[in-house]
Amino acid sequence: MNNECAKNEAKHIKGIVCDVKNCAYHSGKSECYAGSICVGPNEASCSANTSCATFKPREF
């Protein structure tokens, strides 16, 4: 997985709740503005084994 799946569009992805405030796609209100997201890996057996591959560190 890589960040190619993220399209930097300023549009809220409805239904996605994100609390990662240091992500470049975080709105500041628990919303994701990545355009699209990738979650993985394929081998995950529970939610604790997954992560957002679209994460991009926010530049402060």
Characteristics of this structure?
60 residues, globular, single chain, little secondary structure, two-stranded antiparallel ribbon
Quick overview of this protein structure:
It is built from no helices and 2 strands. With 60 residues, it is mostly loops.
Topology:
Layout: E1 39-40, E2 51-52
Antiparallel strand pairs: 1-2
Structural notes for this entry:
With 60 residues, this protein is largely without helices or strands. The protein is globular and about 30 Å long. It starts with 38 loop residues before the first strand and ends in an 8-residue tail after the last strand. It has one domain. The chain has a two-stranded antiparallel sheet with strand order 1-2.
Average pLDDT number? 84
Which outline best applies? globular
Instruction: Report the total helices.
Output: 0
* Spatial arrangement of strands, main beta sheet: 1-2
The largest pleated sheet is described as: 2 strands, antiparallel
Helix fraction, binned, reads under 10%
Low-confidence stretches: none
Instruction: Say what oligomer this is.
Output: single chain
- The portion of residues forming beta strands comes to 5-15%
Structural class: little secondary structure
Distance between the termini: 25 Å
